[in-house]
Amino acid sequence: MDKQNAIAALSALAQEARLDIFRLLVRAGPDGLAAGQLAECLGLPPATLSFHLKELRHAGLVSFQRESRSLIYSAEFTSMNALLAYLTENCCQGDATTCAAGLCDGTNFVKPKSQKPA
Q1: Which residues contact 27 (CB under 8 A, 6 or more apart)?
Q2: What are the phi and psi torsion angles at 107 (to 5°)?
């Protein structure tokens, strides 16, 4: 990842709703979540969610695929790992093998449950 892509990704994540969306998609794993599920889980109106997803897509942090009438959004783990690598490339005197933080490949995930208002 180059500096400009890192700035774009960090800028996209520097907004509370987008950070929440991204974290939810990371927890959902590679199967992702439908836009409706995201809206329900986060309590966001569809237009607001759409705006934030567009920003995350432009930053390369999420992707989507169409399944029938639904759009399924997923975190881009390759981009996330590239950003983490960029941010930590000088960690541990440049020897990443000695760092405690590993890379996430999206294989250990838990589907989030919808949080319906009481």
Answers
A1: 109, 110, 111, 112
A2: -85, -25
Strand bridging mode 70-75 / 62-67: antiparallel
Burial class (CB in 10 A: 0-12, 13-18, 19+), 104: middle
Is residue 62 within 8 A of residue 53, CB to CB? The reply is yes
Over range 101-113, report the average pLDDT: 60
* CATH for 3-89, options being 1.10.10.10, 3.30.300.20, 3.10.50.30, 2.130.10.10: 1.10.10.10
What are the sequence ranges of the domains in the chain? 3-89
State both tokens at 56.
């995350």
| Unique residue bearing structure tokens 């960690």 | 91
- What's the whole-model pTM score? 0.81
**21 C-beta neighbours (distance < 10 Å), count:** 28
Residue 14 is inside which H or E element, if any?
none
